[in-house]
Amino acid sequence: MLRRLFAHRASAEAAGDRWPTPVSIRAHSADGAAFDLILGLQWEAILGRDLTREARRRAQRRGATHWSHAGGRAEVVGMARIHVAERSAWRMPCSAAQAFARRAGPGLHMVRLTLPDDPARCWLAVARDGQVLSGGDEVLSVAESESVARGWWDRFGDNLVLWGEGGSHDDPVKPLGWASLGEQAGPAIMLQPVRGPFGVAPIQGSWRWLGLALAAMASVVLIFHAWPTRAPAPVEQPQEPALAGSEVWHEALAQWQRDTSLPTLHTVQELAAAILEMPAHWRGWQLQRVACRRQQVAHWQCNAEYQRESAEARQVGVKAALPESWRLIWGG
Q1: Who contacts 224 (Cβ-Cβ below 8 Å, separation ≥6)?
Q2: What's the alpha-carbon Rg for the chain, to the nearest Å?
Q3: Do residues 113 and 123 touch, judged by C-beta distance below 8 A?
Q4: Three-state SS across the chain?
Q5: Tens of pLDDT, residues 227-239
Q6: Residues with Cβ < 8 Å from 82, sequence gap 6 or more?
Q7: Which range, of 77-86, 94-103, 117-126, 318-327, averages the lowest pLDDT?
Q8: Contacts from 83-90 at CB under 8 Å and sequence distance 24+?
Q9: What are the backbone dihedrals phi and psi of residue 304, each rounded to the nearest 5 degrees, phi first?
Q10: Model confidence over 94-116: pLDDT tens digits?
Q11: Residue 112 and residue 283: Cα distance in Å, rounded?
Q12: Alpha carbon 270 to its chain's center
């Protein structure tokens, strides 16, 4: 494990890319239970020993709010980033593309269906051997869907089995409707919410929850400084003992003020900015946790732990690439 000790800001993490907006279609399972088929997920290939775990981690790193994985040795994960107002209306959300992949089975398959409430748009999905292909889950206009479908056909040719509405003895398109996709309802096609630390969903990106926690800490410091205090009530004592007790009390209070200090709001804000700008991924290493300890009134020492996440992570050259304010410790 690679650890970095730092006291100043590091380079900022690259901004996230744009996400498509999924579409929901109300469907019913074989036993009549209502649920939502979600169209237009973003699918990416994954590798690793535990592919379900890697799928969950990929969704967390990409800043998704929901993810879909068929389980087992499935080498793709579907992801979506949905606003709270939209997903609050969902009922047991499931991936439509994953349902099609399970329905189609082995081989190369492509489906194109018109949206029930919007005839001007189509949903197009492509699957191979029970897994959705990257880029094979899109909601498009009718004209766009025809162009994209030709592109898939040019890529795979006669190996591509076509599915869609209608279908007849003279039509090579195999019949498939929204009701047929609903029959595939089950855990294998359900969308899972992305959970961050403490079991809560991320606010927007992978590290925004950390910013919220630090902002709350800064608020506590500000409230403590602004809270009114009241001097202790005087205690009636005989004249001589009262004089000695008063001197002892004032000296004890002065000593407590000298020995006790709290970080200022500005200091906490600088600390929060430094932590938030730590790169989550760096030369094949992944950030695991950050812990900070105040050394003086305005100085902090932070310990950031990194764990190897890919074969690119090497010890050679790491020390030379570190900022001057960091110290390098190799651990187990």
Answers
A1: 262
A2: 29
A3: yes
A4: CEEEEECCCCCCCCCCCCCCCCEEEEEECCCCCEEEEEECCEEEECCCCCHHHHHHHHHHHHCCCEEECCCCCCCEEEEECCCHHHHCCCCCEEEHHHHHHHHHCCCEEEEEEEECCEEEEEEEEEEECCEEEEEEEEEEEHHHHHHHHHHHHHHHHHHEEEEECCCCCCCCCEECCHHHHHCCCCHHHECEECCCHHHCCCCCCCCHHHHHHHHHHHHHHHHHHHCCCCCCCCCCCCHHHHHHHHHHHHHHHHHHHHHCCCCCHHHHHHHHHHHHCCCCEECCEEEEEEEEEECCCCCEEEEEEEEECCCCCCCCCHHHHCCCCCEEEECC
A5: 555 555 666 655 5
A6: 22, 65, 66
A7: 318-327
A8: 89/24, 90/24, 90/36, 90/38
A9: -110, 125
A10: 999 999 999 999 999 999 999 99
A11: 41
A12: 25
- In the chain, the amino acid numbered 246 is S
